[in-house]
């Protein structure tokens, strides 16, 4: 196809270079988002632990909670810590769940440090849709590794994040780096 044919088929050039991230459309359209608040309403955090670790992107499992990769990561190594039990609020965890939730968060930070050597972390949870929770019906805590300069023109202006590694490769690196009890 000539340049003229391409321009007429795809629109006139406008001077912008574009990086396409079509996988983000799944998130924008709500793919894998539950249809309601109940566990059987398609909750991905209830579904993931029932799959083999590699398929569900599960990095580590405890008795009451587990660590899984974020399907739509902000950075490579972006983990989520989730209770197995389908609860929406942090205050709904019992003492053993809260303790393991915290221990898995600590272990996740250790694993990400070993695997990727970030300069810092954002750790937290969004309780409720208005607070920014994409899946508000199932509690989850984010562990996001950060590096100096990891926010540049791409996410700020282009609303695009460039990740250097596939999720399966990230899961393998973190599982291998996970601290053993």
Walkthrough of the structure:
- The chain is globular.
- It contains seven helices and five strands; from the N terminus they run H-H-H-H-E-E-E-H-E-E-H-H.
- It is of the alpha+beta class and 181 residues long.
- Helix 5 packs across helix 7 (167-177).
- It has one domain: HIT-like (HIT family, subunit A).
Tags for this model:
alpha+beta, HIT family, subunit A, 5-stranded antiparallel beta sheet, 7 helices, 14% strand
Mind sketching the topology for me?
Layout: H1 3-10, H2 24-28, H3 44-47, H4 53-56, E1 58-61, E2 65-69, E3 79-83, H5 95-116, E4 120-124, E5 141-146, H6 153-156, H7 167-177
Kindly report how far apart the N and C termini lie: 59 Å
Strand line-up in the sheet with most strands: 1-2-3-5-4
Q: How many distinct folded domains?
A: 1
Tell me which oligomeric state these chains represent: single chain
Structural class: alpha+beta
- N-to-C series of helices and strands: HHHHEEEHEEHH
Give me the CATH fold name. Answer: HIT family, subunit A
Largest sheet: 5 strands, antiparallel
**Low-confidence parts:** none
**Tally of DSSP helical segments:** 7
CATH architectural label: 2-Layer Sandwich
**CATH top level label:** Alpha Beta
> Portion of residues in helices?
25-40%
């Amino acid at each position: 196809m000539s340049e003229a044919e391409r321009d007429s088929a795809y629109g006139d050039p406008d001077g912008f270079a574009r990086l396409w991230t079509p996988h983000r459309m799944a998130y924008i359209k709500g793919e894998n988002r539950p249809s309601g608040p109940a566990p059987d309403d398609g909750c991905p955090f209830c579904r993931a632990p029932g799959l083999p670790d590699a398929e569900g992107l599960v990095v580590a499992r405890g008795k009451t909670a587990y660590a899984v990769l974020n399907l739509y990561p902000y950075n490579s190594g972006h983990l989520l810590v989730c209770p197995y039990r389908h609860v929406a609020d942090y205050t709904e965890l019992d003492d053993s769940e809260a303790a393991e939730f915290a221990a898995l968060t600590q272990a996740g930070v250790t694993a990400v440090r070993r695997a990727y050597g970030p300069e810092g972390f954002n750790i937290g949870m969004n309780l409720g849709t208005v607070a920014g929770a994409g899946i508000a019906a199932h509690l989850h805590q984010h562990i996001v590794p950060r590096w100096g300069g990891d926010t540049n023109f791409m996410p700020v202006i282009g609303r695009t994040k460039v990740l250097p590694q596939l999720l399966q490769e990230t899961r393998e690196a973190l599982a291998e780096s996970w601290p053993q009890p």
